[in-house]
Design goal:
Layout (H helix, E strand, L loop, with lengths): L11 H10 L13 H11 L11 E7 L2 H14 L8 H12 L5 E7 L9 H21 L3 E5 L7 H6 L7 E9 L37
Antiparallel strand pairs: 1-2, 2-4, 3-4
Helix pairs in contact: 2-5, 3-4
Bound molecules: flavin mononucleotide.
Length: 215
């Protein structure tokens, strides 16, 4: 690869386009995408940065009837907010159950934090969030729509157990994937300059080189 002015001009336009044109796609068609596409999305997740190579990500791909099992948990969580004799209880249960069927493929995103004493749980969560972003970008690049959804369900111990997570495991949410059934507007972001402080930038040429580079 040719580096010009410290940049890889061949790579940046594609990366930028993928990052900037990816949008949350909440409406997808019921047709199941090809398994190879889902495998590619999962593979991309595993290239995320992760401290000490703990690879803390865990995935459960839910398709077909397996989604209804997730829906039963979602429905139960909704229903629990209402008294037994409240007619809204069953309406809300059905509404919750339907949520899991919004897309033909639902990927549960789990974190299994490394248990060594030098592993920081926050880093493990951050690594899995990076993995999830890889997945969203890859789905987008493959022409699929994806939505990362969390909500109270990620804290439900029964759901975490059903997904096979350990007592230390965390659930970061679910990525719903399918062929897009909506177009999305270009989104708006706050200009990064208003969220960034630059310190010492102009000193760069006047600061002596450190004796040695240490990571
Ligand atoms: C950790 C996480 C959890 C999210 N959970 C939800 C959710 O529960 N429901 C939802 O509608 N969107 C959820 N989203 C998606 C955001 O709403 C979406 O990214 C945001 O609106 C920005 O839109 P964009 O993805 O098109 O840039 C979640 C995103 C992240 C990163």
């Amino acid at each position: 690869m040719v580096i010009q002015n410290g940049l890889l001009p061949s790579l940046w336009p594609a990366v930028r386009q993928a990052i900037e044109t990816r949008r949350t796609i909440g409406k997808v068609h019921p047709d199941q995408p090809m398994r190879e596409a889902i495998e590619t999305i999962l593979e991309s997740a595993t290239w995320a940065p992760n401290h000490r190579l703990t690879e803390p990500w865990r995935f459960v791909v839910l398709a077909g009837n397996a989604r209804a099992e997730l829906g039963a948990f979602m429905g139960a969580q909704n229903a629990a907010k209402y008294a037994e004799d409240d007619p809204n209880r069953e309406i809300e249960r059905a509404r919750g159950a339907k949520k899991a069927l919004r897309a033909p493929v639902v990927i549960a995103i789990g974190v299994e934090p490394g248990q060594a004493s030098n592993v920081d749980e926050l880093e493990e969560i951050a690594a899995v969030a990076c993995a999830a972003q890889n997945m969203l970008l890859t789905a987008h690049a493959l022409g699929l729509g994806a939505k990362w959804s969390s909500g109270a369900i990620i804290h439900d111990p029964a759901v975490k157990q059903w997904l096979g997570l350990s007592e230390h495991g965390l659930l970061l949410g679910f990525i719903y994937i399918g062929y897009p059934a909506m177009t999305s507007e270009r989104s708006v972001r706050t200009p990064v300059a208003t969220l960034t402080e630059w310190r010492g930038w102009d000193d760069a040429n006047s600061v002596p080189e450190p004796a040695s580079n240490q990571s």
